From TrEMBL, chain B:
Domain Transcription regulator PadR N-terminal: 7-78
Record-given protein name: PadR family transcriptional regulator
InterPro entries xref list: Tscrpt_reg_PadR_N (IPR005149), WH-like_DNA-bd_sf (IPR036388), WH_DNA-bd_sf (IPR036390)
A Pfam family per the record: PadR
Amino acid sequence: MSTAGTREEQRGDERTQHTGEAGPARPAGPAWRTGGTGAAAGRRGSGAAGPREWAHDLALGARFATSGGRQGWLRTLLTAVGVALGVAVLLLAAAVPEIISGNDARSEARSGAFNTASGKAQPSEYSVLGKDANNRWNGYQLYGRLLQADGSSPATPPGLDHIPAPGEMAVSPALKKVLDSPEGKELRERLDAKVVGTIGDEGLLGPYELAFYKGADDLSVPGGAVRVDKFGSPLDEDPMDPVLVLLVVVACAVLVMPVAIFIATAVRFGGEQRDARLAALRLVGADIASARRMAAGETLVGALVGLLLGGWFFLLGRAFIGRFEIFRISIFPEDVTPGFYLGLLIVVGVPVTAVAVTIFALRGVAIEPLGLVRKSEQRKRRLWWRLLPPVAGAALLIPLAGGLETGGTVNEVQVSSGVVLLLSGIVLLLPWLVERIVGRLRGGPVAWQLATRRLQLGSGNATRAISGITVAVAGAIALQMLFSVAENSQSSESQASRYKSHVDIYGPHTTLADTEALTADLRRSQGVKNAHGYLQSWVEAKGIEDGVGITVGSCATLRAVARIDECRDGDSFLVRTPKSVSEEQGGATPPPKRGTPLMLDKAPDDGGRSNYTWQVPGSARTVMGIELPNGGSLDGLMVTPSVLAEKRLDSPSFQGTVAMERNAKALEALRTTVFHTDPSYSLWENADQETADQIGAIKNAVLAASMAVLLLIGASMAVSMLEQLRERKRQLSVLVAFGTKRSTLGASVLWQTTVTVVLGIGMAVFFGLGLGWVLLRMLGDARADWLVFLPSAAAGAGVIALVTLISLPFLWRMMRPDGLRTE
Amino acid sequence: MSISHTLLALLEESGPRHGYDLKRSFDERFGHDRPLHYGQVYSTMSRLLKNGLVEVDGIEAGGGPERKRYAITDAGITDVADWLSRPEKPEPYLQSTLYTKVVLALLTGRDAGEQLDTQRAEHLRLMRELTRRKQGGDLADQLICDHALFHLEADLRWLELTAARLDKLATEVRK
Amino acid sequence: MTSTASTASAGSPRGAASTAESAAQGAGTASEFLLSASGLYKTYGSTAALDGADFAIRPGEIVAVMGPSGSGKSTLLHCLAGIVPVDAGTVTYAGRDLGAMNDAQRSALRRADFGFVFQFGQLVPELTCLENAALPLRLAGVGRKEAEARAGGWLERLEVGDVRRKRPGEVSGGQGQRIAVARALAAGPRVLFADEPTGALDSLNGERVMQLLTEAARETKAAVVLVTHESRVAAYSDREIVVRDGRARSMAGAL
């Protein structure tokens, strides 16, 4: 290596001697080529760079990032802030599984096996009777338990050091605040106990959770209570609804992808100035590979600073999270911790991506000593390889069609990689599409001509700037489609509730007397127009797959729910669904035939005991049901108490429907009424509020997140737009000198963005609807709402319009003649 | 280059002095390549004396030859001024004359910038003529004109440079 | 306006030549000049780019503006063309005061009556050479076909008709500059402002561009304000003015 250099010099000397030329001109040759130590030069010459060259060049690049004066710092800072915002979002996303598992752990720690059959402890010194008293208040979920100690040293749930005495309760700090406030009057009356203690953080899911443990003395296992001798049994929770899992997986995929694109954009901030500097370095002898490494080194600094800054943003946001409730859910900051592997992936992946993006971006250009040469004879973009990822994504997703229809499970890896691959099609196909379409544009007014010609010459920058937004929009569209279907599946009852305001009440344990008493109380409650309550049980029947509902009640009660002319104790009725209801629900359940054998008192684990069979009385008369305020009707079998004693029914439950004013105060009063009967009774404002709320919360979260992502990308678009304008400063000035109207130039900028945006958003709509359709097929639901793309597409277009608007004043400034000054 | 005007201007700057001192002064500033012969100075001063541009201020007797001390007359001062403000006919290789004039203008407290502008105007006049001739002429004409144009331009560029450096030059010359 | 005409070199002793110049500028009838300016002041930040400059040009006249770098030559051109507003002083074009016009009016004037050639970076890289040359016509409202036909004729005249379909990045500097000249002349300006038009060219190309530019200007009777620091370029003018320290002085009297 060094010998080569020496030989070169020798030859140079010989030539000098031979021709007698002046000395100084020649030796410059080899010196120019090496530009460093002989060894390094030799290796560079051979093309492959060793780790030492890498380290050296990266370090040199890093120096440029920090030593470029105010401009240099600004550029590095811009990249760092961009990367930091992206990293913060990624860290938050990486913390989501931990938040969920942290939440689960807290739930498990305080669970008293109320939801499982495992709570079958024998009474002892340590055992405690507990009963679910979960509740709602003004849209807040209250976690509540009634507790009753069997002995003198009972087990306590986390956050509590003793079981409250009857008539006393321990509450969470947030609930205490509510109870102490004037708005808490209703809740004070409902809970009706003296606050004697506070639940510690370890017993709460979040700092703002409303929770209470109330002491009781009337709990019994038959009355719905569960006996436990320790808290913290593993929760055997229902697995999450696969639709929800699908939503969450897709949401994460479509939100993280634009952020990744955003980071890739952010590391290219200030690229123009950097290119000029690299050209200068080439002039003094750096080769192309080492110039690229230096560029990578420069980016690396921004990325690393961004990583640190992002970590700091994340910690800042985490502390912030502890102080706020999002969608009425609060989280302890310490639960918001990214998982180790995901965190590692971010810490390693972001800088590596930054370097990769920089090097990749410089592939299309040659850094020549006299400036950057974009390879003007660009190859036409090819279509075939751009189609591979989206096709692969579709291939992963389409076979899953119908997979969730019958309640299958979601293969998260397959779904998320399918979604990412499919959406990557936008990023890959958009440049091709823009090139193809713009290439055909001709003529038009000057502004249009300037815009289209500019795009024809190089549409890469323009499309790259919006690719993040298009992916975000496509993802949002797909999600919207899923949401609209999930909401639609809330079926007839919620539709009925549109014109009738009603509340359904369900209690797992009741007696006939309690049912009558509660129904009377409900009728008396504030704002109630009408209330029906009855005791019902669901029993298995031979030959009827779904079983038969048996309603037990007095003639008066039964008359309220069916058209019954004559009724005496001892009568029984077979109820037909009224036409209005069957039309609404698209079908009716025929009543059981007389003499059908029904299996009574069938416990799930009753050992070898034989089932007690009871037959539908032959005297049962067929009557028509009455449409209830909730839009449904009772069907099946109705009996008066002497026909079938309530005690012979397995878990007789209370079913109630209340027609009332739509009025928050009346609703809270109703809740209090029910709570005083039995805290474990549930109320629904409509049929499936729980799931609807869950879906609503995810929908809100996703919408908020996609807005945040859109704004984030909008910010990066603004930055690169301003950069592009600054690059064109001289040109704009010349055009102004010509007397070009500002409006013409403004219009050309607008046209330029409009063309790319229309194509980009069109692409986003196409892919978004496509992805949504594929996902819907997974759910086996083809009822797609094809117009859901409008809001997301509008939001995307809005952000781009905003960015253009923001850049206009800058454009005006660029159009000042200062750009003509060269001195 | 006019030696008589140069000596006259030097005399104006320094006040009355001997012919030999004038020669030394000339040699220092302008005679880098070719020092003046004293005989040339002597004959020039005699001619100036005859034309009334200088007068004899006094004679010093000493051990050597007779030494006359000369002083400039009013007519001499006017003559220097006319000479300095008169543009030189543009021709190749006249730098030394231009340089002499610039330095003398500075030495005698005149506006050298204006002098340069005058000279440039004169140069440009010739250059325009040449350009015109070139545009109308055949290839030979063009080559000849271009040769002249490039030399004239070189002169002017030197003039520009000199003008830009006047301040520095002024302190240099006066120290 | 006439009263301020002599502020330019007040304080400096002036020879007979300067007095003659004052007369030419100050005493000349206003109608004699197409474009004139007096007492121009322009400051960028704390540096005075123009410090009381005067200027006048007759219809069809070619005037070279000379002076060292940073003397304010380009600023003078920008002010004369109404590209930048002056801090003080008046610029009069064809009897109209540029200072009294608003930006839109000045832009319209530049589109209709002025043409521009700069040293470099003036062609829009995305447009073809023909489209570049047709740009001023199109800005002035001429239809695309006609504008391109007219501009094409000018490209032929300037010996760059063969590159009309290429983009500026694909042609040589000399060709680019010819295209710029064609563009400046295509709309038939009455004043052509050229700021170091040959600054980035070699001698041969520079000579040719100047020759074509002046020939075309003389033929179309366009006045040319030619900013240059090269005397060989200035030799194509009818007379020159020199800008030094933001003050312009004419050497017209030396003629």
